[in-house]
């Protein structure tokens, strides 16, 4: 085995999180994986991880070997890709993180199409409840709402988005008046408990051009950490929902949901594709980003004029 083979092997072991998981991923016996890891540590004369069959924890040296190894393997893939014709199939690997709802609906289908174009490229999509940092578990790309929290990351806008206040006609038929934001206090609000935000504090801005911002505390007996579940609750007439345009535009178009309070709108919640500075010159990164931005166009209708 070459040092590059060792780097690739350790990447797989570390991503799997355990020797048992690595044995499944690599198609090797547990004893074979354990033996090869010990041989690698003996060659380097350093401990890379503490482990049991169920859990593997990297040492400081293991973290360094993982991070630098990913960069070396990535650089090698980029070098090979740069030597090929620009229209040729890409190789190497991209690890992508996105949140469940948007990831299932939009990211996964586009990755499927990109994979068809580049059969030699390994694409790993990990969907999570909360967006993960690029430094966590070696992700190359993070697709999330909002601009990057870290100046080391580069952001490209993937989708213009805004949260929309809405409810089903059946609910509105028997509900109190809703003419101003303060009236939400008299309504059953459907609360999505996601991310680390103050989820019962709904934020709005006016549509009069001044963009005055307001925050209103809402209450309701129905809440969930799954936004799709709460959208279903809104469709069933259980209350008022503040949900992203990308998630409810079809229901608004069909009349199953009705947009409320046209003088106010939820704050912007654009989706960005984030990657690290070191990947700026990566051929596979550039072509993946260009593909995602191009193909995302038209998947979701543009926001109404007042919401842009």
From TrEMBL:
Keyword tRNA processing part of the UniProt annotation: no
Ranges where the HTH lysR-type domain occurs: 1-59
Keyword Transcription regulation: yes
Keywords: DNA-binding, Transcription, Transcription regulation
Pfam families in UniProt: HTH_1, LysR_substrate
Similarity comment text for this entry: Belongs to the LysR transcriptional regulatory family.
Protein's recorded name: LysR family transcriptional regulator
Record organism: Chromohalobacter beijerinckii
């Amino acid at each position: 085995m070459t040092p590059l083979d060792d780097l690739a092997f350790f990447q797989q072991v570390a991503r799997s999180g355990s020797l048992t998981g690595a044995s499944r991923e690599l198609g090797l016996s547990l004893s074979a994986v354990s033996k090869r890891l010990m041989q690698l540590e003996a060659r380097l004369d350093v401990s890379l991880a503490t482990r049991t069959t169920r859990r593997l924890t990297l040492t400081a040296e293991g973290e360094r070997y993982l991070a630098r190894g990913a960069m070396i393997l990535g650089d090698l893939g980029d070098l090979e890709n740069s030597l090929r014709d620009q229209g040729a199939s890409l190789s190497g690997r991209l690890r992508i993180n996105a949140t469940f709802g948007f990831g299932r609906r939009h990211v996964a289908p586009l990755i499927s199409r990109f994979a068809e174009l580049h059969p030699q490229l390994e694409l790993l999509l990990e969907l999570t409840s909360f967006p993960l940092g690029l430094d966590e578990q070696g992700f190359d790309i993070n697709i999330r709402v909002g601009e990057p929290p870290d100046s080391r990351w580069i952001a490209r806008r993937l989708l213009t988005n805004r949260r929309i206040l809405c409810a089903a006609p059946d609910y509105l038929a028997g509900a109190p008046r809703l003419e101003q934001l303060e009236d939400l206090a008299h309504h059953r609000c459907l609360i999505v408990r996601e991310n680390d935000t103050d989820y019962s504090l709904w934020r709005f801005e006016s549509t009069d051009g001044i963009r005055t911002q307001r925050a209103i505390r809402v209450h309701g007996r129905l809440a969930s950490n799954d936004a799709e579940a709460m959208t279903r609750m809104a469709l069933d007439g259980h209350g008022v929902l503040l949900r992203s345009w990308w998630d409810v535009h079809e229901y608004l178009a069909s009349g199953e949901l009705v947009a409320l309070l046209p003088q106010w709108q939820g704050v912007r919640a654009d989706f960005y594709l984030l990657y690290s500075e070191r990947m700026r010159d990566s051929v596979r990164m550039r072509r993946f980003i260009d593909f995602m931005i191009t193909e995302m166009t038209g998947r979701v209708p543009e926001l109404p004029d007042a919401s842009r």
